[in-house]
Amino acid sequence: MPTYRDEVVVLRTHKLGEADRIVTLLSRRHGKIRAVAKGVRRTSSRFGSRLEPFMVADVQMYQGRNLDIVQQAESLGAYGADIAQHYDRYTTASAMVETADRLNEAEATPQQYLLLVGGLRALARGDHAARSVLDSYLLRAMALSGWAPGLGECARCGTVGEHDFFLAQLGGVVCSACAPAGSPRVAHDTVALLRALIAGEWDVVDAAPHRTTAAASGLVATYAQFHLERGIRSLSHLESSR
To answer: Which of 11, 71, 135, 159 is placed for a possible disulfide with 97 were both Cys, Cβ 3.0 to 4.6 Å?
Structure first.
């Protein structure tokens, strides 16, 4: 059976036997991969540390019948240690890789891989607030999967304007005529921050007050979990640490 090489992000790992692990990877060219890394739990393993969650590696794989086998791994981005030293970065990274793991195979594109690598790199460097990095990642990941929120015109009827409601089930901001009775209002500066997060306008994001970033984070979490059709477990740890 053939071998192949690819760049990967390690999403999660599971113990297998006494010395092996099953690793779930998001790759640049082959989508999501589940593979066996033999002997990586031994202290003598040559590449065990390169196959921990949040690590980016260049791997050589042997194509197996059910699970592929990792033959070699060279580090491309050793982000795990820097992320693990900070609780907010660790829980944020956990939510990001959990989201990436939820992607269907058809959605695990090179763009999703590059987006995740960029987010983990920003977390490891401490470039921006960890929760803002997560919010930007979630919005962009949803957009790449075809679920970009409507943040300009009404997501339901298309009316252009500054609308006062944001409903995940309707696809984003909606006008007063389309919003169901009793819908909570959303501040215009919160919607503006959502636009900045999805566009990567970090000068705007970094300058936003806590009240606005907290409101935006709540909307992003609701929107992402609605479209993923189940909760992101790691988000509960983020909420408890706020």
So the answer is: 11
